[in-house]
What we know:
Layout: E1 2-6, E2 28-32, E3 58-61, E4 66-69
Parallel strand pairs: 1-2
Antiparallel strand pairs: 3-4
Amino acid sequence: SGVSLTGPAGTFTSPNHPSNYDNNSDCSWTITVPSGSVTLTFDEFEVESSSQCSFDRVVVRGNSFSTDLS
Length: 70
């Protein structure tokens, strides 16, 4: 699924939150700001245990960088 977020502030959650999301879910959110920086704050973050974080992860990409938050 894909969701676009714009504006000075916002909130997003995983599908079916606060319950578990479906297996093999692939979710993406596009955050667009006119200029400047974006601050991401995670109030709660729980991942399934696996070697090399192959099941759950957050990837943050920007115009000039990419970061994998596994």
